[in-house]
Amino acid sequence: MITGTTAGIGAAFAGRLAADGHNLVLVARDEKRLREQAADLHDRHGVEADVLVADLSEDDGIAAVEDRLRDRTHPVDLLVNNAGFGNRDRFLEVPITDELRMLKLHCEAVLRLTSAGADTMRDRGRGGVINVASIAAFFPRGTYGASKAWVVQFTQGAAKDLARSGVRLMALCPGFVRTEFHARAGIKPESVPSWMWLDADRLVTAALKDFARGKSLSIPDPRYKAMSGLAKLAPRSALSSVSSKVGRPPAKA
Question: Keywords on this record (predicted)?
């Protein structure tokens, strides 16, 4: 099962897993795009791709996906919690309703879906969850960075708790990836240095290798691994100054 599957990292996961012969459950808000994606994956790879329309920033949407994850007659072996969004504006420039929606999607939905999926996986003695976080988890960057830091901490803690259950959990921390994600957030490509952009397909390949190795944290690019290392050593004030500028417009007076 992949959430936020119709574009970007989610679509790359879907394409790779389908190419490997896995049947899929595709979760997103846009039914038309979901059905087009499912048909394309079936035609290209001969796999079954079920469609589940759900808005994971709403209780009803989260509950619908929880129900599917608890279906023991058609169990899910791998859950990829990828749905998410970003805002380019600074704190107090973003409506509080958008901030709360982000926390609902990035934190509550991830917690509830991971719990529902891992519970049935533990009963079978096998399965896995990949929670897509961000390199922003290691930098001060408002609600987005804070929510992704929560994903990393939660996932690594849960991975430790379930270490002997047969269920593996991994937090994936990509950097800037050329997808619709940044366009929807209003982030212009030219506002991000060219060397920081990653390819979604290569990212997924590296992430799945890390997952197969049993890692609980994946930063699948040497550049971003170096950045996360520096983030542990650099003064927080310096990190905040840099992270608040990349991909954002000039601060308002």
Answer: Oxidoreductase
Query: Tokens 């290392």 identify what position?
Result: 229
- For residues 153 and 110, give the distance between their C-alpha atoms in angstroms, rounded to a whole number: 12
The 3 state secondary structure assigned to 153-168 is: HHHHHHHHHCCCCCEE
- Compute the distance between CA of residue 82 and CA of residue 68 in angstroms, rounded to an integer: 17
Instruction: Say if residues 2 and 22 touch (Cβ distance below 8 Å).
Output: no
Residues 168-195: pLDDT tens digits? 999 999 987 866 555 555 555 565 667 6
Question: In this predicted structure, which of 22-26, 137-141, 212-216 has the lowest mean pLDDT?
Answer: 137-141
- What integer pLDDT is reported at residue 234 of this predicted model? 58
Q: What Cα–Cα distance (Å) separates residue 183 from each residue in 29, 54, 154, 189?
A: 17, 22, 28, 8
- Positions of E strands within 31-149: 49-53, 78-81, 127-132
- Closest alpha carbon to 177 in 185, 168, 167, 169: 185
**Whether the model pTM is above 0.70:** yes
pLDDT tier at 220 (50, 70, 90 boundaries)?
confident
- Which residue numbers are catalytic? 144
**Strand residues in the chain grouped as ranges (E):** 2-3, 24-28, 49-53, 78-81, 127-132, 167-172, 176-177, 197-198, 217-218
**Tokens linked to 26:** 């595709």
For the stretch 112-144, pLDDT in tens is 999 999 999 999 999 999 999 999 999 887 899
Residue ranges and CATH numbers for the domains of the chain are 2-244 (3.40.50.720)
Q: Do the beta carbons of residue 208 and residue 197 sit within 8 Å?
A: no
